[in-house]
Amino acid sequence: MKIFPMASSSINLASFRPSISSLRFSSTNLCNASLSDYNPSRRLALIHLGSAIPQTQLFGVKVSKLLRADGNSIDVVTAGNIAQANTGVTQENALEWVKKDKQRLLHVVYCVGDLDKTIKFYTECLGMKLLRKRDIPEERYTNAFLGYGPEDSHFVVELTYNYGVDKYDIGTGFGHFGIAVEDVNKTVDLIKAKGGKVTREAGPVKGGSTVIALIEDPDGYKFELLERGPTPEPLCQVMLRVGDLDRSINFYEKAFGMELLRKRDNPESKYTIAMMGYGPEDKNAVLELTYNYGITEYDKGNGYAQIAIGTDDVYKTAEAVKLFGGKITREPGPLPGINTKITACLDPDGWKSV
Fold this sequence. Notes:
CATH architecture: Roll
Radius of gyration: 21 Å
Strand content: 35-45%
Number of strands: 19
Strand order of the largest sheet: 5-6-7-4-16-19-18-17
Pfam families: Glyoxalase (PF00903)
Active site: 224
CATH class: Alpha Beta
Number of helices: 7
Domain VOC: 104-228, 234-354
Largest sheet: 8 strands, mixed
Distance between the termini: 13 Å
Protein name: Lactoylglutathione lyase
CATH topology: 2,3-Dihydroxybiphenyl 1,2-Dioxygenase, domain 1
Keywords: Lyase, Metal-binding, Repeat, Zinc
Shape: globular
Helix content: 10-25%
């Protein structure tokens, strides 16, 4: 399914402050927000669904939304379903539905300080195409979507430029993006010729035969180049660091229906990785979760924002997220003016997904 630009793309620079942890805002881009303070844009915050909100059937539990006098809604489980809601049946039904859901990684969102410079680097050095670009002057930001194919069939990047903000803190939690190329050495030479930064020269991985290289884009986001044959999904990885790998694997399997594709421990370097996704690594974009021995928390900065995932039913997905260790930060519902429905959540480490 195709998802349209979301709350992640909205900004009010009046609320931008050097200390992101102190932010409280009603209209802010995700790139400037504390992970625990996520609040969708003005366009989402101003949704008025009225006092008549229909009941929603979630995994056999009927939930009614009632509007309180203060304008906030509350969920009410009808008496006939309380026993079911308090048993393991709900989790079993949730797991059954998640397995049937047709999920797909859609795009990854992050902020850059010079949009034109970044677009130039991605198109000329990494071979991406500019799929679309839109400017929202009233909210002082510009979006650009880039990738290796149409958004409705490929994993793409959504870049956000916030007027007047030329630098972001990437933090220590974000790792890298992975790009599959047919010749890493040629790609590295091209990047050097264009003035790009190479932080690890082309060569085989330690203990393996896959040829890789590490580079940085103009904002300092790291990219790992992996040498592969032709693939339908060259934008192939997003690497994030987590504090408890087994907990994260459990969450992404049960809440999002991802498959553990492989897991590898590297005791000599004191880290373990797990590849999670919806299909083989050579044909699909995957999430690479990394656990560094003894490190349970990371600084997430304010540059990297979130991953968008396509689902058949945001209401059921939200319930699964709640049941299996995640936190809903935007209750499921339609975007204003269009039929697309979204929900936003945090995984157990505080990484955002929409």
